[in-house]
């Protein structure tokens, strides 16, 4: 048993006891850092739950409902120990985190160590032993909850980098389960991963799964290479043989979106009207550029705004004609690196608008906030050029959302070659976000290209996104997990 393992095990008979609050055992369990529900509090202070917006929840909802499913996750606030409850046919199993654990497990090890390390060290990862201890403790708690709620022989699907130790911990408690794991962010090259003082524990944690899914082939290959180099286990075409004879499969499953829903929502007459209004409010520009991101240093927001500013200051775009709308969703605001990034971007926006704008006509409209789905659909519809320029990104669903919202073969997508989505969306105007001159050229080309060139690209992009939606992603993963041979 490695350091990641717990000595206490929950036997199957424990599952009928109090921990799951009398809820029935689940034959399908999702384990994710966050729960799929948000709390709504009305004016009288009464609270209620509503299903969170987001592709993963929507894609898994039917499976959860049809298979007596449960979702194990954190409610998103510190020091809340809620009883399990049923919401819209799903059993919700909250995992509490203390304030210290939010700091050390979530902001610390997950987002101050793993996040930058897995994103090509575009920011400096910090290694702190107390963060690791917290990660270990919290992963153990998630594994305990999943072990308690899962029925005999259930399928358990663990999500993402915050919970990489859970597969092994869960297998030790419940060898009867089928365990899948999906990593939503990139899996780094071995040279970077090896920096991690707890590399062996993370590797063994993941190998507790029957199937480990990655966004792109490169991630799966990085993982199997690491298995050979660090653990010396034999691998063959993504199949890893463990010393006890068990096999683990490592494969790519590019995640996607509810394409049809995005399309239908953007198609509504009120969305079309709002899209027109937005353009009008922005001064009816000839070229409307759009960026939509979580405010994260991996997204390349600074680089793209600089490129846009230079296009105007070089005289290649006219501030009368071109507007950039940047929506930046607040994120991880207590983490130092994120505070710094926000300051840098807001200073840049202020400087560019001050230098290049006219009264009432700033060339960059920057919004540090969340927008409802309908407003986003209108923005996507209104934009002539969608600019997606991450320095590294597991997939980037914003690129796919923009394409899904097109109502005809128009518009243009500028896309970083370092986004997972670049493997599928090959007809985008591809850029290297580190090359500002190239980014400028491609942004200009995307705006001014002949309509027939744009239409040719967009037709292929739309077909790709419609044929590969998130339901297909979930089905492919779960079918493959179902085909994995049970270890016991
Ligand atoms: O991209 C990885 C991811 O964990 C997403 O699944 C999630 O939407 C995003 O980062 C936001 O993360 P957080 O839970 O830290 O707000």
TrEMBL record:
InterPro entries reported for this sequence: Glyco_trans_20 (IPR001830)
GO biological process, one term: trehalose biosynthetic process
Coiled-coil regions listed in the entry: none
UniProt protein name: Trehalose-6-phosphate synthase
Family per similarity comment: Belongs to the glycosyltransferase 20 family.
Phylogenetic classification of the source organism: Bacteria, Bacillati, Actinomycetota, Actinomycetes, Propionibacteriales
SUPFAM superfamilies: UDP-Glycosyltransferase/glycogen phosphorylase (SSF53756)
GO molecular function: alpha,alpha-trehalose-phosphate synthase (UDP-forming) activity; trehalose-phosphatase activity
GO cellular component, one term: cytosol
CDD domains: GT20_TPS
One Pfam match: Glyco_transf_20
Stretches the record annotates as Disordered: 1-26
The species this protein was found in: Microlunatus elymi
